[in-house]
Specification:
With 275 residues, the chain is mainly α. It has helices spanning 2-7, 11-31, 36-58, 65-98, 102-106, 112-142, 153-178, 185-197, 211-215, 218-230, 236-267. Helix 4 runs parallel beside helix 7 (153-178), helix 7 (153-178) packs antiparallel against helix 10 (218-230) and helix 10 (218-230) packs antiparallel against helix 11.
Length: 275
């Protein structure tokens, strides 16, 4: 008996254990749609983003390379207003859930809007620090002054902040409904919206197949207004007005969405995920 056992190939049980681990992780990936971002969405988004930048540069008019470079650098600075605002509020919610404070907050008189405003207020320090770092780097290395366009840039910056906060509420709503596995959407949603919003180029540089998606994003109108203000265009005023209307619509939708998700969260007992 011992001779037979000694002769059995030991590699077979090891291969089965390896296979079991591989199948387990494959099933986890298949059953969690959020993980598709890492596998398929990121490569597609990168292709659209960098391909559109290349298209914009390729079709720049003669002597327009300086304007193209200015548009890209300005877009990077403006984008960080959205990025830092969204990250500050979304990670504030994750801090409450990771520290097991969420159940306690739900039984206090604190209203959801009060929590959002408080988190946004403390997040302003992060926004100021992050944007200052980006703007300072752009000024030092590329000679770009974000306040060079004058007072017209102020309402655009305010709209970009509102866009970031509204996107954060959408992420919070998704996490409330789908659980902590959706936290990757904090960054995933932002970097899907980035190329579609035309932060670094006009939406005309996008492939025609995805332009309809850009047309429904309030951020695309806000970045168009930012480009007009930066270029001292006469159409900046009307574009800011359109961007303001689109941003208000996004804020209303995001507040309604997070409110509905919070009610579902409480009614279905999803709070047990955070205890």
């Amino acid at each position: 008996m011992s001779t037979i056992s000694a002769g059995r190939p030991r590699a077979v049980p090891a291969l089965r254990r390896i296979q079991a681990i591989a199948v387990r992780h494959l099933l986890v990936t298949v059953r969690n749609w959020q993980r598709v971002f890492d596998i398929a969405v990121w490569p597609a988004v990168d292709t659209i983003l960098y391909g559109s930048i290349a298209t914009y540069a390729q079709h720049a008019p003669a002597g327009g390379s300086a304007r193209t470079a200015l548009s890209v650098v300005a877009g990077i600075v403006m984008w960080h207003l959205v990025y830092q605002a969204e990250i500050a509020v979304a990670t504030g919610f994750f801090e409450e859930s990771h520290s097991r404070q969420l159940p306690g907050l739900l039984v206090t008189p604190l209203r959801p809007l009060e929590w959002v405003l408080g988190t946004a207020l403390q997040g302003m320090a992060k926004v100021v620090l992050g944007v200052t770092a980006v703007a300072g780097t752009a000024a030092l290395l590329y000679g770009y002054d974000m306040f060079d366009p004058g007072p017209g840039i102020v309402p655009v910056m305010g709209l970009l902040l509102l866009n970031g906060w509204a996107l954060a509420l959408i992420v919070v709503a998704l996490v409330l409904y789908f659980g902590a596995g959706s936290e990757g959407l904090t960054w995933g949603l932002l970097f899907v919206i980035l190329p579609l919003s035309g932060a670094f180029y006009p939406v005309s540089a996008l492939p025609s197949a995805v332009r309809p998606l850009s047309a429904v994003l309030p951020t695309s109108y806000t970045f168009a207004a930012a480009r007009d203000v930066t270029a001292h265009s006469a159409s900046a005023g009307p574009h800011i007005a359109i961007a303001a209307l689109a941003t208000v619509a996004l804020v209303i939708v995001s507040v309604g969405f997070v409110t509905a998700s919070l009610r579902t969260f409480q009614r279905r007992g999803f709070i047990s995920r955070y205890q």
